[in-house]
Amino acid sequence: MTNISSLNHNPTANKHMNKIVSVIASTVIILVVTSIISLVVVTNLKHVQDPKNPAQVEKLLKQIEVADSVRNSLPDSALAIYNNVIVLLQNQENNKTKLNLLANSHVGIAYVYSETGNSILAFKNDSIAMVYALECGDKKTQAKALIVRGISFFKLGNYDTALTYYEQAEKLAQEIEDQENQAKIFSNRAIIYFYQGENKKTIEGFTKALEIGKQLNNEPLIATNYMSLAIVYSNLSQNDSVFIFYERALALFQKLNDKNGILRCYMNLGNAYYGFSDYGKAIEYYQLAIKNALEMDDKSNLAKGYSNMGDVYIQLGDYDSAAELLFKSIKIKEQINDKASLAKGFFCLGKLYFYRKDYAKSLPYFQQSLKINQEIKNTIQIGHNLNSIASIYSAQNKNDSAIACYIKVMESYKEIDYVYGTSNVCINLADEYRLQKKYDLAEELLLQALQLKTEMDEEEGIATVNYHLAKLYLKKAEGLSENQKTGLLKKAEESALKSYKSATRIGTLPVRRDVSGELKSIYQMQGRYLEALKYFEIYNALSDSLLNKDKIEVLTFAEARWNVEKKQQEIDNLQVTHKLNQEIIQQKVTESSQQKIIIWIVVALFVLTLISVVIASLYLRKRRDALYQKQLAKMTALRMQNARNAMSPHFFFNVLATMSGLSANPEVLKAKLRSLSLLLRKVIENIDRTAVTLDEELSAVKAFVDLSSDKIPQPFHVEYLIEEGTKLQGLVPAMMIQIPVENAIKHGLMPLKGEKKLTISVTDFDGYQQITVSDNGIGLKAAASNLSTGTGTGLKVLMQTIHLLNLNNQKKIKFSVNERQSQHVNTCGTAVDIQIPHDFNYTL
């Protein structure tokens, strides 16, 4: 049974090629292993005449054991083995041995289908296995069948029925002293207790299963229960135990080459780092889990990986990426009918729209999630849903309803000792009391939440609590005399700065934006207007980043596409249904002349269906054309934005100011004027061009560097390394090199003390062109820590341009920004790597 699972690098050519080779190699290995195993099974079984023959029976049992050992990592291979055994036994005379072999084969098939989300085939094969096991009196296989039946009902969210089957299986396992199956039952039952919030029973179940695994020296069983205990302790915020158990589990899974176990470990490690607000690590492990799920065609875990990644991007304020991932996840979850995961997907969508302040769309998704969690009795998630619904009531100024809902959730969380949930409800409830001017109650709850978040080492939560404390102290200070409010404003400032620093460190844009607004108000009330202006500008920049029009359009488009795909699936299903009906009628047409009428009816329905499909196809084509026009318009807007960025009034003002001081040196002045003229001409020429030649781009870059060099504190050196034989007439996107050069000068070299160096290199490789812009500046981390109000518009426009151009190309332009180490003590520098295929098509 799969274990509990709830919830960037910039690729280079070598990594991309390694990934392709890895996928091809894995596919070839799976096919070869399947073929060899199937051949061995056929060779060993085709001479079986009597299943009672001990030697032949031993061969059959070994083949079933092989299938059992690979059914998690190679489910298709396992199914091939089980089915071969069943086929080769069909013509044999019925006896106890044959029935036992058939029962074990069908149990194995049922397990595979249960794990891959095909509950219908799982129930079918499980029922067949139970019939064979009862007929031959095999209690061990009966227990296995009951366990698989419990797993299937667990997957469907029917926990009570699953527990009933586990109880029946445990009685049989105890009767025949089958410790291995007893351990599986303890573990599977503990998973259900976990979802129901019964932590004591959960730990007890996993601990019993772990003890049995150690007694039997069963490493897969030990690894699984180490991982399960890590998840439980993570939920209880007992952080010291969490990573110890994860490390032990992952080491064992890797030793066993258990791909399914490794996948689950990656997923849960991502969850753990997400809980500690280490979003970089969380994304890293989610990406590893998604990669493994794709290689194994594990739809259930693939959907969970997409959902979890989407949740991280919500916290980072990247709503377009979050929306795309969440809708992909929900589509898969609906296909496999995974209720628990589907409920989480709807919850994440509700949270996404809540952050957008679109409560009309947010509330239905929270309600859908609540309904499913109530059906499957998932106590913790029910609390999350009610907490979110209460937040919507609060946003709609229904404060009494919100408070009643929060109190109900808090009582529920305290009963199951759910610290993380309790801390969040304290924050929300305090905010309601603040609105009702019950400031002492609000402060008491926030300090309680701060203590809980600190104990859990949850940095994002600490940042959020400090933001709310700052907001509370600021509110209390309003209307008081100057002497009375001085102390409160000082406390508000301290809390707000703590929140801002934490949010900046972990990259949580929504919290950083909100607390910037509070700092602006605090400094304004203190009469510190320069500080107030600085944070007001930061607030506006972050608000633009989080709520720009493009992201709203992407979110709307993602939801619309999801709905269209659902409708298309319904049309496809309808067509298949009509086709099957027609085949049935054709088979029976000779039996009765009256059935001819039915055939004509079915034909008419088929024609109507065909017409519907044609209409739908025309509609989709029309929508694709509209999307093309939208992309074309967006590309035009991006070209204009590039032109505006290149013709920045601030830049030209500085250049002209510099030139005014060169009147005594006419030769230098002429050179500067030539550079300025060249740059202006290139900008105007390129307004209508998506791509320019490399030679033209380098000319514009050299002019730009020449004009900028006077502003850079000396010494400053620039080096152009153009490999001999480079195709200078090859095309590159306009400003592809100039924008990284501008960023390197502005953010990397300008703040650097000492010698400054900028290097631009161009190299031709087999099939693509490598362009690198590197500097020895202060590096990415130091630049990000500066309180600059710049929005990085140039880089954003460039990335959007590359994204649009890549849509119509199989070989993509690759663009990465990396921090590199330097020989200098206090510098590290930045390198921008660009790879452009030689045959890249710049037509939209």
Distance between the termini: 48 Å
Let me know the average pLDDT: 78
Structural class by helix and strand composition: mainly alpha
Q: What's the arrangement of strands in the largest beta sheet?
A: 2-4-5-7-6
Helix content: over 70%
Number of separate helices = 33
- Outline the biggest β-sheet: 5 strands, mixed
Low-confidence parts lasting 5 or more residues at pLDDT below 50? 1-50, 549-554, 571-578, 787-791
Percentage beta strand:
5-15%
Total beta strand runs = 7
> Radius of gyration, rounded?
32 Å
Shape: globular
In short:
Helices cover 75% and strands 5% of the residues. By secondary structure, it is mainly α. The strands form two sheets. The chain has a five-stranded mixed beta sheet, covered by helices on one side. The chain has a two-stranded antiparallel ribbon with strand order 1-3.
Describe the structure.
Helix content is 75%, strand content 5%. It has helices spanning 13-45, 54-70, 75-89, 96-115, 119-136, 139-155, 159-175, 179-195, 199-216, 219-235, 239-256, 259-275, 279-296, 299-315, 319-336, 339-355, 359-376, 379-395, 399-415, 419-435, 439-456, 459-477, 482-506, 509-526, 529-546, 549-588, 595-646, 649-660, 666-685, 694-708, 738-749, 780-785, 793-806; strands at residues 691-693, 716-722, 731-733, 756-765, 768-775, 814-819, 830-837. The protein has a five-stranded mixed beta sheet, covered by helices on one side. Strand 4 and strand 5 (768-775) form a beta hairpin. The radius of gyration is 32 Å and the shape is globular.
